Amino acid sequence: MEMNSIGLIELTSIAAGMEAADIMLKTSDVELVLSRTICSGKYMVLIGGDVAAVQSAVDAAANNLDFAVIDTFVIPNVHADIFPALSGHSGTTNLEALGILEAFSVASLIEGADAAVKASNVRLIEIRLAMALGGKAFCTLTGEVAAVRSAVDSGALVIADKGMLVNKVVIPQPRPELLSEMI
């Protein structure tokens, strides 16, 4: 299956989250990327597939479970850096400038991270989703200072448009010890 699109639904209920995953998988030909509880008793379901199938699956779950929906998204043509960053760490061994985006919701953060890496020549290091973070999420990225500033500003704008921006930071010439904190 070609995964050129991802979709996510973030819910206030664990039971509704499991039901959402089932609805999404039964609605369309999509692949389950991640389905799990997240901090503060929430649940998230992330799927992949072609744009129409992902949109249909997200819409079906959101319409059936609207009482529990915190946020949703569908990102067509998702940037290739998103998948390794969601897995934990992209393998980056050298920090140039360090950019950090922090959001109140998983959905807004992933959308912001995608916008950031599409806006500038940067590398996404990781995306951390709500576990041991009080339901918040953050991502880190690296590249030249100007590129990181542009990327962070682009990602922050997407997150802020949803009212979910906690903070954005750009650290020029970060100490190498910071990388070991991210692994």
The average pLDDT is: 90
Q: What structural class do helix, strand and pairing data support?
A: alpha+beta
Number of domains: 2
**What is the level-2 CATH architecture name of the largest domain?**
2-Layer Sandwich
The first-to-last residue Cα distance is 30 Å
Enumerate the strands of the largest sheet in spatial order, edge to edge or round the barrel.
2-3-1-4
Element order: H for helix, E for strand: EHEEHEHEHEEHEH
Shape field: globular
What is the gyration radius calculated from CA atoms? 16 Å
How much helix, percentage-wise, in residues?
Answer: 25-40%
- Please tally the helical runs, counting DSSP H or I stretches of 4 or more residues: 6
Q: Beta-strand percentage?
A: 25-35%
CATH topology of the largest domain: Alpha-Beta Plaits
Low-confidence regions: none
* The CATH C-level class name of the largest domain: Alpha Beta
Major beta sheet summary: 4 strands, antiparallel
Number of strands: 8
Q: Superfamily at the CATH H level of the largest domain?
A: BMC (bacterial microcompartment) domain
